[in-house]
Structure formats: C-alpha cells, structure tokens
Amino acid sequence: MISALEAQDLTVARGGRVLFERLSFRVEAGEALALTGPNGAGKTSLLRALAGLLRPAAGTVRYRGAEPDRTSQSLHWLGWQDGLKGQRTAADELRFWARWAGESSPRVAEVLDRFGLAACADLETRRLSAGQRRRLALARLSAPPRPVWLLDEPLAPLDAVWRDRMGELMREHLAGGGLIIAAVHDPLPLSARTLDLGVAA
Amino acid sequence: MLAAGFYAALTALVPLAAGPEPERLALVAPGLAWIALVLASLLSLERLFERDLEDGALDLLALGGPPLEAVAAVKTKAQWLAVAAPLSLLAPIAAVALGADPGLAPVILLVALLGGLCFVAVGAVGAALAAGSRRGGLLIAVLVLPLLVPPVIFGAGAIQAADDGVPGGGLALLAAYTLAAAGLSPFATAAALRNAIS
Predict the structure, then answer these.
(1) Selected residues 82-101 of chain A with any CB under 8 Å from a CB in chain B
(2) Can you tell me whether residue A41 is helix, strand or coil?
(3) What gap in Å lies between CA A47 and CA B28, rounded to an integer?
(4) H/E segment holding residue A122
(5) How far is A31 from chain B (nearest CA, A)?
C-alpha cells in the first residue's frame, strides 16, 4: 500500500527550457491534488516525471510504501491520449490492458457496464465518440486496482452526467486509500488541493 | 500484404528496366531478389512504433510489468512473422521467375529467411530511433541501410558460392550477423524508445 507520494526539489526542463524549479509537495493516501496552470506550464511533464516516464533534471520522486524499483506497479497512468487502437474492439482493448497491468482474468463485461459501455463492447474503438473513448480509457483505472492515479485532463471530453459519475468513482478510490494527481483546466468534481504551476514557476 | 505487393511489383519491373534478354536476367536474378527484399523490409518499419507513440500506448507499455526490452523483442518478432517471413518465401519464386537456376531456390530461401530476420532486427532499432520525428520513413532508411551492407554482402556471397558449387560462402557469416543483430536489437530498441517517450 502507498502511504504518500513525495516530490522533492523537482526540476523539469523540456527542450532546454526550465518548466519549474525546486518543486516540492507531498500527497497523502486518500488525498487528491489538482495541477492547474496555463498551457505549457509543465503539468503534463510533471505528471510524466511522477510516473517515471520522464527523468527530472534534478530532484526525486518517492512512493512511500512501495518497493523502490516497482513503483510503476502501484500506479495507473492516463495520458491526454487514450492509447486505444482504432481497429480493435472496446472489449479487446480493455482485456489487453488489464492483462498487461497484471490482471489474470479481467471481468471485462462488468467493467464496461459500470462505465456505460456495455452496448459498445464489440464496436471498434474508432467508431466510438470522444467521450466514449475517454470512458474506455478511464475504465482501465479499475482493472486491476492500483493506489496511485496519475491523470492528464481525465474529464475533458465527458458530459456533465459522466463528470459527476467519475467524481463518484474518484471519491470511492480516495476512500479506499488511493491517491489522485490530475492535471486539469476545469475543477475536479470532488474536493481537491490545488497546485498552480503558473504561480509556482 | 502491402510489402509483398511492393516486392512483386519491384521484381516485375526489373525486366522492363534491365532489358528482357534471359541470359542477362538470369545473371542478376538472385541478387535482385535479394536487394528487393531489403527495400521491401524497410517499407513498413515506420509504423512499428510510430503509432504507439502517437496514441499514447507506448507510455502504457513502458509502465507495464514486463520491461520495454521484451516489448521490443515481441514487436520485432511479430514484424518478422507478419512482413519479412512472407517476403522471404517470395524471394526464391521471384528469382526463379527472373530466370535463376531453380536449383538455387533452397539457398535463396534460406538466405532470405536469415536476412529477413536480420533486416527486421536492425530495422527495429532504426524505427525506434526515428519514432517521433517527421519523415521518419526516410530517416529509418538512411539510418538502417549502412548497417545492412554486411548482411547483403554475406547473403550475395552465399548465393554466389552455391551457384559456383563451392560450399560455405557467406552463409555462416550471415547467420552470425543475424544472431548478433537479433540478440542486441531489443536492448538498443528499448533504449531508443525510452528516449522517444521522455
């Protein structure tokens, strides 16, 4: 179990430009952090550094309670892209990614139903709407369960009903001891601490 | 499929460009079948990692349990099975159709199978290095073709030796180069992919 995610003196540079310097924060289990800031402030880069996809120029990221080399096993990553192959069906994609994340027998039908995609299970993902594709990408967060969610614009193409529904799912996740860090432009549909990178920089 | 069509079209163009005299064609047929294999193998390399990088799937693959080296090895193997191996089956057919001695077909097939694996293994490194750059296809060709010079020479040598009826030739060297390329390729490819997503 992860007790906290810590960033210490984090400096991230992209293409020779320093996005932010000596950024330190700590997110406890059960807490949500919303990263805000103008386009290009470094929200995505910060998320990628936290996930271990991007090596920071300086500073460290620590997952308290995780084995040091296996931090990627405690997190779910949802980038601004959905990571879905257009010619494969929704069920196939969900099954593949759940297996990839280590779930041996994913309950695909149940998860699709929970995300309102039961009718789309056998549709190729390129035939889905942007909101449906996003919901399918979000469905990956529930199979298998992992404590840390790193989300980049998770709710952008969703309608009001599904924003609220995702708010509920996120609250459930936090109540179960998970933690969420999300880059957002609109406020998250739950109470969250805010880290404004525009101000930090 | 597309690469196979390209291969067939390329070898069919040869008599039109080089002249239809059977003696002249028979002389160059094995070499042409061989060089067409190199070009056709390069054709679909651009999409090996580019799509995964664009749609974000590569990030998820990088964060999964198995290391990126395994991802690179599996994708390279899939590319060989789906593209290079069928092309290798076409190579002896194309060579014989152009007038090569049918007795050479088994050697050409063996060389093409080995060479196809080698081209894909080296090509995967180029594809990973070029991922994320514009006009990646051209970049891959420029990066990869110089590295394919030795196997092309070994393969041509092996076919020539078989034609002359002497044993050996470049076959052992081609096999060695292919083994080394297939063994090292996943590590170089994974390193290049990590660089592409960071």
Answers:
(1) 82-85, 97, 100-101
(2) coil
(3) 57
(4) none
(5) 23
Tell me if A51 and B63 make a contact (CB, 8 A cut-off).
yes
Q: How far is CA B120 from CA A93, A118, B19, B107, B115, in A?
A: 26, 40, 32, 20, 9
- Decide if A65 contacts A1 (C-beta within 8 A): yes
The token duo for A76 is 């779910």
Contacts (Cβ under 8 Å, ≥6 apart) of A83:
A97, A137, B55, B56, B57, B59, B60
Neighbouring-strand partners of residue A77: A150
> Is the minimum CB–CB distance between A53 and chain B shorter than 8 Å?
yes
Would you state the structure tokens that stand for residue B151, as one six-digit string? 């196997």
Cβ-defined contact of B63 to A102 (cutoff 8 Å) = no
Q: Which pTM value belongs to this model? A: 0.87
% of chain B beyond a pLDDT of 90: 45
d(CA B154, CA A8): 55
Query: CA of B89: how far to CAs of A115, B92, B148, B155, in Å?
Result: 47, 7, 20, 15
Cβ contact A41:A183 at 8 Å: no
Q: What proportions of chain B, in percent to the nearest 5, are helix, strand and coil?
A: 85, 0, 15
The values of phi and psi at residue B20, to 5°, are -90, 5
ipTM score of complex: 0.88
CA distance A66 to B93: 57
Q: Determine phi and psi for A151, rounding to 5 degrees.
A: -125, 130
User: In this predicted model, what pLDDT tens digit does every residue of B132-185 receive, in sequence order?
Assistant: 887 888 889 899 999 999 999 999 999 888 888 887 778 999 999 999 999 999
Closest residue in A to B58 (Cα–Cα): A83
B21: closest CA among B123, B80, B82, B98? B98
Average pLDDT over residues B89-111: 89
C-alpha B34/C-alpha B30 separation (Å) is 6
Interchain contact, A83 vs B56, CB within 8 Å: yes
Quick one: CA dihedral A127, A130, A136, A140, positive or negative?
Answer: positive
Distances (CA, A) of A148 to A41, A116, B102: 23, 24, 63
